[in-house]
Write a sequence for this structure.
């Protein structure tokens, strides 16, 4: 548990140093200072004994480092609506690279952090669940998408992403695939 707390604090401190990097010209434009992000969309998970469609959620806070690069602290989670005991939760430091400085631009993202997962048990009784149903460890995410109205206070984005955790459950390596609509404000 102490490693998780240390990781979260270090991630926050590293990402907060990038938030202070706005120049005077950037400070006059609200979208350059910082932004919250909230996203939702459909997803699929594997390695958790739940091949069902899930809802994928994203919440984060970020700021630009340069006109092309944004740095964020995000939490990403997937929840199964049919198998309510299944979850895929991550907290990560993410970097977005915007291919142009235009108002609408394609971008790619990469993130690294910690993931916690719980696999679905094949029974209705809690006693049959195994410690192998739970896992936690290092997670990597990659993706790409398109941002709209980037020079406005409120922006929209479409993001396709892939997350993998480098620790296994008894069902395999946990992975999540998602297509999310993201609101930046």
């Amino acid at each position: 548990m102490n490693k998780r707390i240390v990781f979260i604090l270090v991630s926050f401190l590293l990402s907060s140093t990038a938030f202070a990097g706005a120049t005077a010209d950037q400070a006059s434009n609200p979208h350059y200072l910082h932004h919250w992000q909230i996203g939702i969309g459909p997803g699929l998970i594997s390695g958790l004994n739940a091949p069902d469609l899930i809802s994928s959620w994203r919440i984060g806070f970020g700021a630009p480092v340069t006109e092309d690069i944004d740095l964020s602290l995000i939490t990403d989670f997937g929840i199964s609506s049919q198998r309510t005991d299944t979850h895929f939760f991550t907290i990560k430091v993410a970097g977005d690279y915007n291919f142009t400085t235009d108002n609408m631009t394609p971008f790619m993202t990469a993130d690294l952090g910690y993931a916690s997962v719980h696999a679905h048990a094949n029974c209705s009784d809690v006693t049959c669940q195994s410690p192998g149903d739970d896992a936690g460890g290092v997670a990597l995410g990659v993706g790409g998408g398109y941002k709209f109205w980037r020079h406005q206070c409120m922006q929209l984005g479409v993001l396709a992403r892939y997350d993998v955790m480098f620790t296994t459950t008894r069902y395999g390596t946990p992975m999540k695939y998602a297509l999310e609509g993201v609101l930046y404000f």
